[in-house]
From TrEMBL:
One of its GO terms (molecular function) is hydrolase activity. Residues 178-434 form the Alpha/beta hydrolase fold-3 domain. Residues 81-92 have a biased composition (Polar residues). InterPro entries: AB_hydrolase_3, AB_hydrolase_fold, Carboxylest/Gibb_receptor. This is Alpha/beta hydrolase fold-3 domain-containing protein.
Length: 469
């Protein structure tokens, strides 16, 4: 059974959630703006931080001018380390020996020492100040290409990359992209909440990948299918970013002249109507769109499953994006015919069945409300595409969660058609046990994150370097 602390916290959590849902019901008739909201005023949020203070840098991007849709990017500091340390060392030695500017050589050496000892003693104040000054001059152009990449410091933020070296594996690594959808019953929660920020940082470090947390529009301001469409729109945005990155490399390689001329030509072509850069530098330098994983938490699992289905239907039209796997953490599934766990654990911890039905009423349009709606029940007949085309799917369930049985049943249906679909069940765990702020630092939450990382790495490994178990 859960601890006494969890039980007491659950009581206060449910009282607070019930109060919030009732407020949403009372104000739902006045909320019809298509722009929508992605976070509530009462939500405890964590500010974005582009510095690698704890091994992960973050930034927020508003990607749709017509809605409130936004994303938070989590970039692990391992994006700078080469997977082939030997070739990396030899290549950097060649660069240093062939570069007539001794100041660059010393700066590059300091960077290497800092990268190898990111949590150790820092360089001298004078050398750190000189390096910081070099970074300020070259982060957005005007310095050498290598210097533009050397901007990971405790004293400054990682500001971007140099387009001509964005694909140079000796300076940066291409990491898989994990598209994460937060929980909250479609009504609460946010991608920048303190709990979600902590969880995404943990996943980014353990999976060694770029996590993109989606700030989809919340209900009842924006009911179904707004949140689902936002998830699909972000996947399209990733594809657009990958294509823009390829265009930028083509423009730089085809034009002659100095690096400064190349940069000016690049920025003249790849800007939007307001003159802002269209290329997201972190993704262009470090993102690998051919290794994309969908990770959904609670109601975010419903969105992830929808996006996976749409990706299967799109096929090659989504190139270069390839969804290689998805992770469904205690999915927010329900149905008109109750399962055993829905009967036995209807009044379970944190999210009981009665409050979740209220959340579904706030999310689904009144005329379409049904517990067997395609967004709510994955097992209704006639859903497209056929399950045999779905990507490998890991399902995480909690023993004390009333949604457990339907999630397990969905995983069983996937296995029947030969889809890799294991289930991880955690004893004495409750809904949101691995992603709720109070439970994030528990051993169960840590073990769950590590188990997810082990399974995900099997599907994001390069061919010929797969992990064996």
């Amino acid at each position: 059974m859960p601890s006494v602390t969890v039980k007491l916290y659950s009581v206060f959590f449910k009282l607070l959630l019930k109060h919030r849902l009732q407020n949403r019901i009372q104000s739902s008739s006045d909320d019809d703006s298509p722009f929508g909201v992605t976070t509530r005023p009462e939500e405890s949020v964590a500010a974005a931080n582009p510095s690698f203070t704890d091994g992960v840098a973050t930034k927020d991007i508003h990607i749709d001018p017509f809605t409130s849709l936004s994303v938070r990017i989590f970039l692990p500091e391992t994006c700078f380390a080469s997977s082939d340390s030997g070739s990396q060392t030899q290549s950097r030695a060649k660069v240093r020996s062939s570069d007539p500017d001794s100041s660059y050589s010393s700066i590059n050496t300091q960077y290497n020492l800092h990268r190898r000892n990111s949590y150790g003693p820092s360089a001298s104040p004078k050398s750190a100040a000189n390096l910081a000054e070099q970074i300020r001059r070259c982060s957005y152009g005007g310095g050498s290409d290598a210097e533009s990449l050397i901007s990971k410091l405790e004293t400054g933020a990682y500001r971007g990359y140099s387009p001509s070296l964005a694909n140079n594996q000796h300076f940066c690594r291409k990491l898989p992209i994990i598209l994460q959808f937060h929980g909250g019953g479609f009504v609460t929660g946010s991608n920048d909440s303190s709990a979600n920020d902590y969880f995404c940082r943990r996943i980014a470090k353990l999976c060694d990948g770029i996590v993109i947390a989606v700030g989809y529009r919340l209900a009842p301001e924006n009911r179904y299918p707004a949140a689902f469409e936002d998830g699909w729109k972000v996947l399209h945005w990733l594809g657009k970013q990958a294509n823009l990155a390829e265009c930028s490399k083509s423009l730089v390689s085809k034009r002659g002249g100095s690096a400064d001329v190349q940069r000016s030509n690049l920025h003249r072509h790849l800007v939007d109507t307001f003159g802002a850069s269209m290329v997201e530098p972190w993704l262009a330098a470090h993102g690998d769109p051919t290794r994309c994983v969908l990770l959904g938490v609670s109601c975010g699992s419903n969105i992830a499953d929808y996006v996976a289905r749409k990706a299967v239907e799109a096929g090659n039209l989504l190139d270069p994006i390839k969804v290689v796997a998805q992770v469904l953490m205690y999915p927010f599934f329900i149905g008109s015919v109750p399962t055993h766990s829905e009967i036995k654990l209807a009044n379970s911890y944190f999210y009981d069945k009665a409050m979740c039905i209220i959340a579904w009423k706030l999310f689904l349009p009144d005329e379409d409300f049904s517990l067997d709606h395609p967004a709510a029940n994955p097992l209704i007949p006639g859903r497209e595409p056929p399950l045999k085309y779905m990507p490998p799917t890991l399902t995480v369930v909690a023993e004390q969660d009333w949604m457990r049985d339907r999630a397990i049943a969905y995983s069983e249906e996937l296995r029947k058609v030969n889809v890799d679909a294991p289930v991880l069940e955690y004893k004495d765990a409750v809904h949101e046990f691995a992603t709720l702020d109070m439970l994030l630092k528990t051993p169960q939450a840590q073990v769950c994150a590590e188990d997810i990382a082990i399974w995900v790495k099997k599907h994001i490994s390069f061919r010929g370097h797969e992990l064996s178990y």
